Each structure stands twice: as structure tokens, then as C-alpha cells.
Amino acid sequence: MTGMEPLFESGKRVAVWGAIAAIGVTSLLPAADVSPMRTSMGGHVEHLLVYAATALLAASAYIDHGRIKIALSLILYAAALEYLQRYSPGRLSSLMDLTFSTTGVLLGLATFQVIRVLRERHTRAVAVRDPPIQI
Description:
- The protein is mainly alpha-helical.
- It has one domain.
- It has helices at residues 5-28, 31-34, 43-61, 67-84, 95-129.
- α1 runs antiparallel to α3, α3 (43-61) packs across α5 and α4 packs antiparallel against α5 (95-129).
- The longest helix is centred in the C-terminal third of the chain and has 35 residues, at 95-129.
- It is elongated.
């Protein structure tokens, strides 16, 4: 382990919690305050992409935790935020938004798993092709 790896791991965890906090804040802001931040992609795509990126980052930062635990935590968080939007001026709870958030979580975790498998295959292929030199 190099000297930078613990710092990098800590940085990933800080990034995850920053993303989670940003989702919470933007989800509960009044509609008038959120509208300048909206993209042209539409709310459902925004939900999908934000939760996919957060799940991917969480799986990378908390590699020793189970994917089911990460998925359930993020989905419950999304559900809680959707419910709490009822109390934010100009905002509405939406089962469709929750569906896109859930899909984003699952997509992010699936992407993490695909990347992990591809990296393992590459590592094995390099080890077979270029075995370490024994002295």
C-alpha cells in the first residue's frame, strides 16, 4: 500500500457523503430555488444519473460493505426524500421519481460490478502473460 492510498480512500468517502448531502439539499429546496439548477434532460433522467453516480461512488468507497446494504440504504434515502418533498414549497412527491432513483441506484451498482469483473480479468491476463521474475 502506498502512502497516497489511505488518503484516496478517505477522499472517496468524503465525496460519497458530499453527494448524499447535495442530493438531500437539492431534493428539499423549494421549487423556485431548484429551477435554476435544472438541466434540459428532465427530472427523471436527472434522478437516474445522480443516483447512479452516487451508487457507483459508494460501492467504490465502501468496497468492504455489501452491495445490497448500499442499494437498500440509497433507495430508503430516496424514498424518505420523496416523502419529505411534500413539505417543501412547490414540490411534490412522485412515485415515478422514486422509480427512476431506484433504477439509478441499481444501474450504478451494476456498472461497478461490470468494471470490477473487467479489472479482475485484465489483472489475471497480465499476470499470465507477464509472470513475475523469480530471482
